[in-house]
Amino acid sequence: MAKALESSLQIAISGVLTNALDLSTPEDSLSKSFRDTLATGVGLDMADRMWHDTRTLVGTSEEIDLAGVLTDGLGEVLTFAKVKGIMIFNKATSAAFNLTVGGSLTGVCFINWVSDLSDKIVIGPGGCFVLWNPSLAGYAVTAGTGDKLKIDSGANQVEYDIIIIGTSA
To answer: Which tens digits make up the pLDDT trace of 107-144?
Structure first.
């Protein structure tokens, strides 16, 4: 029996802004959500590979190799051809315990989701970064030259959760 992956992303943001005046309290309410589902496969709106982990960095950085090193939850070694989604949650609770995502230690970095090698995203304590591209192209992974996702904890010990969804071809 062939393995199958069905995955989805759901994001919701809501808020109420009020302004207490003398005779009234005007209010601006917002509720916005986004949901997308990927079927099993390697095409448009599809994925067939998933990797997830809880990791801890202790005043260092790591480069997560997306081609031929990671093992999925069923014990199979993964090689992502395209990344369709990434979610990283910084589990730190102390101020300034940031995670920096992007850039490169070795020059073989996975950077096509940003403009160039020096671009980085900083995820503060309790923060979350989500990247979602269900298109046919996704974000290509090139083994040996564009397959390492750098994550840096600076001088701090930071625990984080990471999920990567993509395709094998």
So the answer is: 778 888 887 888 899 999 999 999 999 999 999 999 88
The number of beta carbons lying within 10 Å of the beta carbon of residue 140 is: 15
Residue 5's Cβ-side half-sphere holds a number of Cα atoms within 13 Å equal to 21
The helix, strand and coil proportions of the chain, stated in percent and rounded to the nearest 5, come to 0, 55, 45
Per the CB < 8 A criterion, the answer to whether 108 and 144 are in contact is yes
* Chain segment 146-158, per-residue pLDDT in tens: 899 999 999 999 9
How many alpha carbons fall within 13 Å on the CB side of residue 110? 24
Domain count, the chain: 1
Q: Residue 55: pLDDT above 70?
A: yes
Residue 133 maps to which CATH number?
A: 2.60.120.770
> Would you call 101 exposed, middle or buried from its count of C-beta atoms within 10 A (0-12, 13-18, 19+)?
buried
0.90 cut: is pTM over it?
yes
Which of 108, 109, 123, 119 is closest to 153 using CA atoms?
A: 123
Domain residues for the domain of 120 are 41-167
